[in-house]
């Protein structure tokens, strides 16, 4: 607990973290991330104990690139607002000339 600066931990699953759910309740949870193509095929996935999505964009894009062996040219990315952060936009700029 001291190492990760936590006040509470789960006795049955110490790697999960307290996060606000969609219902507004604070619950022990994980944050699941996926990258999917326009047909809904999952290209990359990860699970984290961080409640913020902001820092999950770069690892997901890199995992997608690794899984596909190359990011297709003229790819169109769509992200929700929680990824809208300066470092993410700088990271994406070389992948998308429209940024």
Structural description of this entry:
- With 99 residues, this protein is an alpha+beta fold.
- The protein has one domain (17-95).
- Helix content is 19%, strand content 21%.
- The strands form two sheets. Strands 1-2 form a two-stranded antiparallel sheet.
- The radius of gyration is 16 Å and the shape is elongated.
- The model has no long low-confidence stretch (mean pLDDT 82).
Characteristics of this structure?
two-stranded antiparallel sheet, alpha+beta, 99 residues, 21% strand, 19% helix
List the helices and strands and how they pair.
Blueprint: E1 17-20, E2 26-29, E3 31-36, E4 42-48, H1 57-68, H2 86-92
Antiparallel strand pairs: 1-2, 3-4
**Average pLDDT reading:** 82
Q: What's the tally of helices?
A: 2
Q: Which H/E pattern describes the elements?
A: EEEEHH
* SS content category: alpha+beta
Span between termini = 41 Å
Indicate the overall shape: elongated
* Count of strand segments: 4
Helix content: 10-25%
């Amino acid at each position: 607990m001291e190492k990760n600066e936590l006040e509470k931990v789960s006795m049955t699953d110490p790697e999960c973290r307290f996060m606000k759910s969609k219902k507004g309740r604070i619950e022990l949870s994980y944050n699941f991330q996926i990258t999917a193509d326009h047909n809904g095929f999952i290209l990359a996935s990860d699970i984290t104990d961080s409640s913020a999505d902001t820092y999950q964009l770069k690892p997901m894009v890199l995992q997608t690139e690794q899984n596909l062996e190359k990011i297709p040219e003229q790819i169109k990315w769509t992200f929700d607002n929680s990824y809208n952060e300066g470092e993410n936009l700088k990271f994406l700029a070389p992948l998308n000339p429209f940024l």
